[in-house]
Amino acid sequence: AQSVTQLDSQVPVFEEAPVELRCNYSSSVSVYLFWYVQYPNQGLQLLLKYLSGSTLVKGINGFEAEFNKSQTSFHLRKPSVHISDTAEYFCAVSEGASNFGNEKLTFGTGTRLTIIP
Amino acid sequence: DTEVTQTPKHLVMGMTNKKSLKCEQHMGHRAMYWYKQKAKKPPELMFVYSYEKLSINESVPSRFSPECPNSSLLNLHLHALQPEDSALYLCASSYGPPPREQFFGPGTRLTVL
After folding, report:
1. Is residue B52 within 8 Å of residue B71, measured between CB atoms?
2. Of B95, B96, B82, B98, nearest to B33 (Cα)?
3. Span B26-46, pLDDT tens digits
4. Of A101, A108, A112, the CB nearest to B100
5. Are residues A101 and B50, on separate chains, in Cβ contact within 8 Å?
């Protein structure tokens, strides 16, 4: 069974500083990895995803993540954060192997990123 | 059209009421999902519809009844809910060869009195 661990429940960062949000996963098969962002009182928006190929994945809003198979990690990074990045960030894993588009997403518990002016 | 819409945005209901949540997408997606999200928690999967057939039910109480009338529409019928069912209910959809990205709607904020 797949699982996702986000060890940091809250991460405060000064504006324009770099940030890394950690995500580790556990799975017995190949996985697909996702980072979603949720702004207050909104749904989830996909930031980026790892499918295969290059281990460095670039997403929207200047975010990127690196897939590390040996460490089973998929940490999210941004070189310089802005006030608007304040949100909840969820890492998710899918072991999707079906052909029907109904694979399950398993979410981590989330990391609350707070940007300090 | 690349969005998932949900109505209503907010819903307040009593424990004896019957109400429905609606979700719609026009992206040609053939899988649709209902999630429940409590405050400061990740979304929890409730149901998955694939090609308009219920494919996953995560042991959800029968007071929640999903329905997929067509490939673009997903409903969640609510009856005799409990206060602990108050939460944000998110709909999502996905389509395409593996792996598939799920697109989420903005959610319905449900309060059960």
Report:
1. yes
2. B95
3. 999 989 999 999 998 999 999
4. A101
5. yes
